[in-house]
Model the fold of this input.
Amino acid sequence: MYKATLLRREIDNIFQKYKSSKFKKNVLNDEDYDDSFILRVEFALSQLDNEESRIFTNDFVEKADRYWWQSYYSKSTYYRLKVRAMERFLDCLNK
Done:
């Protein structure tokens, strides 16, 4: 399996947990949320540069149109930047 596919699956799982914790905290006022996890994800997101942040926002946070990147990047540039962004996010998350 490709490295990018494995990274994407891991990050999708992280964002599912992140969104669930944020929902429990902000909407349900439920005590069963992981505040330290929320803070770690938000810290990792804040460490991304503009290109990486654009990719994360469109691919993971807002889940924009599948081909949103075509007005910004060539296909090879997008995939190269996406892998770099995913690796950097995970590195920052695990600090």
